[in-house]
């Protein structure tokens, strides 16, 4: 290898150091076939020695790849930064992509204006694929030429839809069965937004596990603490004798605990409470919150793996449902 120094190394610099042609360097950088292993290793050493950074724009012309994926969250900024489930999922996705050379672009889009801007951005070819979470309604992406993986099953599932979800029906069923095993008879529910499959699935599991002679009693929130508090107050007004409540998210369950405390109801002596997600705040609640654990880290990893496989043209599983389990604490 030649000794060549340059303040701003170029493709020519790498070629000179490695003792090969520019076209060979380009083939190695773009991971194209028909390059001998010893030549490939020489070029990689020259890149490390010179500190050369490939021009992504030029590289994209060859590979038709941008080296970036978008994580789209269909929630306002305030929700993204305060919801522990979303924060944990974003962290898991970022950690998994950190093992690769793929850049993550996080985009929050809820308003029509933001969605229109997002649509233009994605159709302009700025990313190789999309991760989409917290989907309301049928989602907002359609007709894209890049792969899309949903975090959570969307309401409408086409034949080629890819998604990774937790077993929300089964988890909710486990929560209600847990309460019934502890002798609770009047079990109410605080459900999430009805334009999200996750909310509908958890409500379905609740109904499935109730005693056949019991009447479902359901109030609704938006997965925030305040909405959980308001929904709990509604339930107490509708069903003063309730002795348990299954809450569709841990944040709403924290609000429910506040409402019960304000109304002089002891937890769990008077009313048992079970949440869903098992975020960090659940174990720190007063009393510590029994909840349904969903594997958020694994969901993030599986979403990334599914998307990268699709980008590479090697799609595997298109629909993954991860198991859930009850984590029993003092609130039940």
TrEMBL record:
UniProt keyword annotation of Transcription present: yes
InterPro entries in alphabetical order: HTH_LacI (IPR000843), LacI/GalR-like_sensor (IPR046335), Lambda_DNA-bd_dom_sf (IPR010982), Peripla_BP_I (IPR028082)
Keywords for the protein's UniProt record, in alphabetical order: DNA-binding, Transcription, Transcription regulation
SMART domains (alphabetical): HTH_LACI (SM00354)
Keyword check for Transcription: yes
Gene3D superfamilies (UniProt xref): 3.40.50.2300, lambda repressor-like DNA-binding domains
Domain HTH lacI-type: 9-63
Listed GO MF terms: DNA-binding transcription factor activity; transcription cis-regulatory region binding
Pfam families in the cross-refs: LacI (PF00356), Peripla_BP_3 (PF13377)
Protein name, as recorded: DNA-binding transcriptional regulator, LacI/PurR family
Organism: Allokutzneria albata
């Amino acid at each position: 290898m030649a000794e060549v120094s340059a303040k701003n190394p170029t493709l020519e610099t790498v070629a000179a150091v490695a003792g090969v042609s520019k076209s060979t360097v380009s083939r190695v950088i773009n991971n194209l076939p028909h390059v001998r292993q010893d030549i490939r290793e020489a070029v990689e050493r020259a890149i490390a020695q010179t500190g050369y950074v490939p021009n992504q724009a030029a590289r994209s012309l060859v590979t038709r790849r941008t080296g970036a994926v978008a994580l789209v969250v269909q929630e306002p900024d305030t929700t993204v930064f305060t919801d522990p489930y979303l924060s944990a999922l974003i962290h898991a996705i970022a950690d998994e992509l950190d093992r690769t050379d793929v850049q993550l672009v996080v985009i929050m889009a809820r308003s029509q204006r933001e969605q229109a801007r997002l649509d233009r951005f994605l159709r302009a070819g700025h990313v190789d694929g999309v991760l989409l979470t917290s989907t309301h309604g049928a989602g907002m992406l359609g007709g894209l030429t890049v792969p899309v993986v949903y975090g959570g099953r969307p309401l409408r599932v086409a034949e080629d839809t890819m998604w990774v979800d937790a077993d929300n029906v089964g988890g909710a069923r486990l929560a209600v069965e847990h309460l019934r095993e502890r002798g609770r008879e009047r079990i109410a529910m605080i459900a999430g937004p009805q334009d999200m499959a996750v909310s509908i699935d958890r409500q379905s599991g609740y109904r499935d596990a109730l005693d056949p002679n019991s009447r479902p009693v359901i109030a609704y929130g938006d997965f925030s603490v305040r909405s959980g508090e308001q929904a709990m107050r509604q339930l107490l007004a509708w069903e003063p004798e309730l002795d348990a409540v299954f809450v569709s998210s841990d944040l709403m369950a924290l609000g429910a605990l506040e409402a019960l405390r304000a109304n002089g109801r002891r937890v769990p002596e008077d009313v048992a409470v079970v949440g869903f997600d098992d975020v960090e705040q659940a174990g720190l609640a007063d009393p510590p919150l029994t909840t349904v654990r969903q594997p958020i880290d694994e969901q993030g990893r599986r979403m990334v793996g599914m998307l990268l496989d699709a980008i590479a043209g090697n799609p595997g599983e298109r629909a993954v449902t991860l198991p859930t389990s009850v984590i029993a604490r003092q609130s039940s």
